[in-house]
Design goal:
about 700 residues, mainly alpha, about 65% helix, about 5% strand
Amino acid sequence: MITLPPVLKKWQDRRELEIVQGWLRNEATAIVGLQGIGGIGKSWLAAYLYEQSTELGFGAVLWADVSQQPEFLAFAKKVYQTFARTLSPEQEQRFAAAGTTEQINVLLHCLRQQRYLLVVDNLETLLNLEQQWRDPGYHQFFSRWLAQGQTSAVLVTTREQPRSLREVPTWRMLEGLNAVAGGKLLAAWGVEGGEASLQQFSQLLNGHPLTLKLAATFLVNYCDGQLREAERLKLTEFEQMAKRATGEHRTVETCLEWILQQHWERLNPQQQTLLQNLSVYRVPFTIQAAISMVEDASERELETRQQLRELITRSLLEELGQATNRRYQVQAAIAHYVQWNVDLTQAHQKAAAYFDQQSRQQRLMAADEEDAAIPYLELFHHCCELGAYATALEVVYYGTDGRDDCDQFLALRGYSATRYQLYSRLGDSWPPETSKPFADFQKVFGDVLQFLKQSSEALNRYQEALQIYRQVGDRLGEANTLKAIGDVLQFLKQSSEALNRYQEALQIYRQVGARLGEANTLKAIGDVLQFLKQSSEALNRYQEALQIYRQVGARLGEANTLKAIGDVLQFLDQRDEALNRYQEALQIYRQVGDRLGEANTLLGLGSLQDDPVSALDYFQSAQQIYLQIGDRYSQGRNLLRFIVNAQLQLGQVEAAIASCEAASAIGTAIGVPVLRDYAAQKLAEIQGAN
């Protein structure tokens, strides 16, 4: 997430400035929106207000450019660190471990204590095509701040207005600069001419700041800055073309396209190729990334740096950050123009080669944030653009060829929304084929869908994968998919069918000598047997699985099985032994960074506490993790099976009722009626008892 605003160059007052300043001075204003088309100056105006924050009464300010689509956790941590100021490492750790709802509670409390200004730039990148939030954390934060915010203000810039913010009264659609300001901007960029002529020329360009900037740099570079020589640019022809355009946006786009055409025609072929190549980068890029786009890069580094400087001088390339962390970016409007009707295959190939090298150098550690995976995610993107879908899958899924297992990293860190976006893109783009990679894709997409409790869709993916594995003779893939189908059937309480799939999978694992798969399936069979209250047989399967996990060094499997053994021992009322197994499992889960396993084990430990206060602490800790990783089913289950009972033991009747209502809402939202029905039953019991 970029936290530095764009550098304010050649600032000119805008007609909206006074109104927006008035909104921000009012402590009752929660959200101010600046909306407009690309290049209209949204970030420019926001940067000016950022610089004015002290004069507007704000004690601290944060610039948050979300164009790289950070998950909500990364955004929330940065806001908290900035405005809470003096934080101990323990406080930061507690905040990171908290669930989304609790994090938002902390942020709202912090923002309401003092006057802070939070600027969120490029908000539209957090939305899907229906103007809905991609990440529910952002939806919850902005919705709650709109309803409960005061003292501080959130200033957003966006091309599109989110549906949930359409009732914001302090929202402004930006227009172009007025004639006077536009004329002054042209003069500030070095255009020479009479005041009236400059104003007239600004009006011709609709006062669109980016177009004015491009026109000015063009005149300075090619006409000695003399506006009177603009006739050499066929200005009359341009005026006629602009008049033929219909609608304000269409006219602005026509002006911008015409100016860009003039710039484009005066670039040499090397500069044109470089700009087109750089335009395929989705995120701000380094000088090394730029140089990688050039043939014989090592021999032409100085020349490439000079070409970059030329593009910056002509306002075709943005320079971001300080010298120690310099980045470059092609504005979206310019990228759209230079990519029009052009074959970008070689550009994507070069970008892919660059990120391929970066991904091999970037180790993914359990404590890393999502930004650590950017080289993997960008390489995935460029492979998809090239139609190399099998390679794209290999980049994020297999963890081979010098790369870490990106999918496992995302799964363990709870970035389920990112995983869903990755595999949804493959699902939308990859034509069906009978191949092992395509079957692997169907299998892992099924895993993500089942994690999100979309069991029907998961089963469809698994069935497609199973058919392909059998066609290509991949016995191990077949066994893995049978095991996954068994997991879904067990989740759906179809225990007999689940056991049949597990037995099929177990037979294949033993035939091909896949010890880890054998252990996983023995563990799953134990789960079904324990569900059927066949505890002795379940323990036998768990012990077999545990032995294999330890032999092959599978720490996560070992933790899962220790947790399961603890569950059986608790069921058999062997409490001390159960506590020991849970503690062993918890230690391993934390070592390997498995948040879901950690949360599930906290529930087991809480269930063994004699003190309801201690029990509730464990349950709430587990709930925070479920919220953080987006496991909504487990949130609802925890509320009903654990948290409500502890609250009732403590006499917290209103809190218990609220927990039931929350669980019911979750059940409705994710399409699991059993949660809603059980919540209604619990509510009736509570109300009957009181």
